[in-house]
Amino acid sequence: MENEKFSPFYFMAKPVGSLCNLKCQYCYYYEKNDRTVAGYHRVMSEETLEKYIKRCVELQSGDFVHFIWHGGEPMLAGLNFYRKTLEIEKRMAGDRKIYNTIQTNGTLIDDAWSKFFKENGWLVGVSVDGWEEVHDAYRRGASGCGGSFKQVMLGLVKLETYGVEWNGMAVVNNLNVREPERFYDFFGDIGCRYLQFTPIVERRGKNGGLVSPDDCGELTEESVGAEEWGEFLCRIFDRWVRNDVGRRFVQIFDATLASMLGVTPGLCTLSKECGHAAMMEQNGDLYSCDHFVFPEFRIGNINDDMSDKEKMLKFAERKKLLPEKCRGCKYLRLCYGECPKNRFLGGGENHLCEGYRSYFEHSHPFFQYMAKMVESGQSPARVMDMADKLGKKHDVRG
Q1: What are the residues whose beta carbons fall under 8 Å from the beta carbon of 133, sequence distance 6 or more?
Q2: What does the DSSP assignment read for 203-229?
Q3: Among the options 185, 290, 304, 388, which is catalytic?
Q4: What residues contact 4, with CB distance under 8 A and at least 6 apart?
Q5: Which region holds residue 336: left if phi is over 0, alpha if psi is between -120 and 50, else beta?
Q6: pLDDT tens, 248-257?
Q7: 3-class DSSP assignment, residue 263
Q8: Does 136 participate in catalysis according to the annotation?
């Protein structure tokens, strides 16, 4: 696959496709194998695995290579699959440093998996949506019965016992969005220092299936609205900026500060361009983004060593197709219209636009101060000493 335009470039692989031992009510990927992926087998073949690793090594420049494993539930591939993966990685990467990240629902983590992660330096992203009541409301077993919270907490205990590095990965839905402080404090209580969260914005068609981003559909009940999303971000930011800067790391706050400093943020939804991270299904099918896994967005198959370069370039251009409201917004460089999949309002406006605008307006004086600290070689954590003063000066809630 040619890659003149995208650098650095990352793949995210789904070794078992959408196969999962849970059936989360809001999941955007659970139904994909029934609708999208042809030639499905339970686990990625060794041939496809080798080609994936080879391509990752070729496309990632520098002294290290990063492999990302996603799902469905990628741990269903089994430990032997990942032991084989390590063998191939070491053979193909040569002297370059290898990093592996796996995103899991956490229910299958035991001593054997935790030992494997620790011994091989894997970063584990664990999906948990908050306290038991709100987590179990949507994250249930494949039969639809029984919540998964207790299993996830046991998995986290195993990771902590073995000293495995892990991040919290949460979905913000119509339930936990109502209690921002409780949400934030919950992750502190379970020892989570690195937190990522994503709002649900999904639409379903008349047949009940999720619609392509270019089609019409009704918002699901689990989705969040712009106003509540903005309120959620502002209230969590207030808790963080007064107590935890430099102690706890929240992805969207890190991304906002990076953008203020003119650095590409580590969050694709807030980046200037799309197309720097492709997704590969277990059968080798390639897509520019795992939120765009629909037949019309398929760009090729790694086993054919082919991709549709025009489709990739066209996909990258989607981010730049901004409505006039965005082009004239003073916070444009902080979000660039956010994710194209959410731009389904009139004129191509983003469903969450007003929420982001509220958050940027609210947090801007604090990030300005932090950016000045960084540029002068000082710690951005100094903002905590100034938070109350900045809040009063700019009429920000305390």
Answers
A1: none
A2: EE-TTSSBPPTTS--EEPTT---HHHH
A3: 290
A4: none
A5: left
A6: 999 999 999 9
A7: coil
A8: no
